Amino acid sequence: xxxxxxxxxxxxxxxxxxxxxxxxxxxxxxxxxxxxxxxxxxxxxxxxxxxxxxxxxxxxxxxxxxxxxxxxxxxxxxxxxxxxxxxxxxxxxxxxxxxxxxxxxxxxxxxxxxxxxxxxxxxxxxxxxxxxxxxxxxxxxxxxxxxxxxxxxxxxxxxxxxxxxxxxxxxxxxxxxxxxxxxxxxxxxxxxxxxxxxxxxxxxxxxxxxxxxxxxxxxxxxxxxxxxxxxxxxxxxxxxxxxxxxxxxxxxxxxxxxxxxxxxxxxxxxx
Length: 271
Hints:
The chain is mostly helical. It contains 14 helices and no strands.
């Protein structure tokens, strides 16, 4: 349980931080693409006896490059390119799983298994989490400006393309970190829901980061304990906890919640 809590909280913090930029830029589908595209890299890593993070990172970065190439060199729009690349690579991973069965149960990569992490996995997660958060801390202002106004970022000498590549690279690392906690299928929730929840609760980006992290860490702790006492999958329990937090914000947020907006509409109608 201690290891599961450590892995879930680390994954929650890193995903929550990246989630804010994903929400503002509108890259939710990109997170989904990368999370599914890493599967063949994970399977190949296990087959070759390598750390799964190496294969996952390689295929995560490769999927981003492939999406960019398809988008720039054809009439296919970005959303279609994302769908083509991530479904194709995910299918390759499924074929590899069925064709080359392994003594190692790879289902935890699909559905998550923080209760089964090894010492090496924890070290990998700690290193990647520290690297990701360090880069975010250094490039925080540039990434925020890129998210809000890429034209202004370019005008003051920043390269939107390089910042985009940096953010996508960080997203790839974040997906790999979260694999142990919730698995490939639900990792996209961890890079979308916390930021979306915080977006409903505040209009200030710095506060959005704090709220996103708080929601994600709370969901990681509650979901892990719930999975133990209810004997259910930890990844699913964590994501359900995040979804409940989003539902509460969606309904009850002071300014942007459904109830508050309806009350404001009624006051405007009476006026």
